[in-house]
Design brief:
globular; disordered N terminus; mainly beta; 6-stranded mixed β-sheet; 58% strand; 22-stranded antiparallel β-barrel; 36 strands
Amino acid sequence: MILRVTFCLCMVGSVYAQTPTDSLVHYELGDIVVTPSGASTDVSSISTTQRINLAAIAQADAPSIDNVLRRIPSAHLQTNSRGESLIYLRGAGERQVSLFFDGALLNIPWDNRVDLSLIPSEVVGEISISKGVPSVLYGANVLGGAINMISRQLRHSGNYFQLSGILGTHRSRQARFTWLQRKSRFQSTLFVGISDQEGFSLPRDADLPYSQSSETIRTNTDRQIQSLFGQIAFNIAKNGKIGVSLLRFDAQKGIAPEGHLNPAEAKVRFWRYPNWETNMAIVSGEFPFNFGTLKTAVWGSRFGQTITQYADDSYSQQIQTQIDQDDTYGVRLTYLRDFQHSGSLRAATTLIGSRHGQEDLEGQGASVNRVFSQRIISNGIEYSKTGQFNLMIGASLDVLVTPQTGDKPARDSQTGFGATIGISRYLSEGINLRGIIGRKTRFPTMRELFGESLGRFVLNPNLKPESSFLSELSLSIERGQTEVELIGFLNRTFNTIGQEMIRLAGETKSRRQRVNLDGSRVFGVETTLSTLINSRLRVSCNLTIMRPKQLTSNGSQSLVETPSWIGGCNSNYQIGSGFSIIAENYYSGRAYGLGDDNQLINLPSSLVTNVRLSWLKVVRNYSSEIFGRINNITDEIVLPQLGLPAPGREFHIGIQITLQ
């Protein structure tokens, strides 16, 4: 283990290494990380805010955003038994992290999460990550963090065309086209992308005694994705802006069965998604208002999916079908006012409403239709003051109501309040100390309250909201081209929503039930380092060490599927004559899975290395890049969850042509 960590720290680099200057930037209409206009110091930085730029996104060569988000310090990604790719920050649960696109919520409120493997990376120009104690302006359910993906736009007037194609292992194919245009008062974006593959590679030494026949391809992991994005934006009178975006994802895929479970003794998901689609419309605006600035984001989305359950891993006998449709609308109003030397005020009101319709079809044709709905109203306000000490205080109030509960009993409304206070101080040139504490709440999702998941779960009508006290203390040092930051954090969560295995009377197979645990505690240290070695090489690294504990009446035990060590390392070396090589390293320490008898089972540590070699040719307004990539070059087995290993070694080659 020590050797693995040492290698991870040595083989480090930066996603911001020497690359051609980006000709693209994000369009900030939908960015809900608001910085006071005219302030001498960015007081929003009292809470940890990290960014992934366009170059890092493009160099991932990934059809979806999940492979890009692995670059976030302290981020852990896994694909669960539903086939959803999810992100965890600093040991927080996946439903505690909210994802936004241009300020509009991407999470499906029914479950408060979204499958990252089906969101195209090409439409994203920058990613902003808020950790520690996220701003109250994000609304409810963000006690684990907030990630805002910001669409691409041109920096200067002109046209930009980009066409790329990628081929890879197991007939993996990608084709993407992007067109951007900017005039003096008008901007537009069009993106079209398709990708498909026969399946993921099976890593060496994968121990899958059940539901796995092939020695090279993981069972039932084929997928096809089509995506479309369009946006127009205008500058209007008196420094105002308005933009309209349309987003569509359409996919079909299978999901890997849990290969450690014997189907004769356990309920295994032999699932396919013959239909998965999201359609979203976003209207964003920014206007001078009452001596300040008013930012708005209004969106509506329709998410639909069909889940088919099969009798076994031959996927020939369909026994049950679930059809879901989620209609969601949201409105966010954010007001910013700068009081010159007296500080700045930020206030936000957010309303999110969602309706979930579900139809369950048995194999004989019988069907059950149910409708569930919820509304969440959030109000938050923050005041920031710069001076010898930079001070930020904030408070929020969130309300959840569930007007429709399907065939389940009605529930009372729930409320949650949040508060933050943070202080930062520049100790000397390039040295900054900051600390922040806060409280936040996450409501149980409709799925946690009402979802039975085709008979896999037993409902718990007594689920309570989670609440967390969050804190972090940071010391950052900047000297020339070197930046170092050390962040200590402590998160104490009450009424943590977890799972237990139970067996009902008369049944031979165990089911799961969601329960409120006594609580959890995550203490950790996150470190980041970035330095420019020379004109060709910048190196950086991040390493997070955590002690994630579930608290019980008998003491404590490790949180399930939460690694105690997480490290991310990248290097980008410009060889010369347009050639460059990138090495990416991702380390995950030992974690624990939950067995059928509620006992913890060791999940092994892993170190994955990816390598990318490229040649870039630039001639005036034309450029072309040819690249090859090997992911998981050592064919390491990565096991973030029992019976569900991550992909093994995979090869990709591609070409990208740009004209501007």
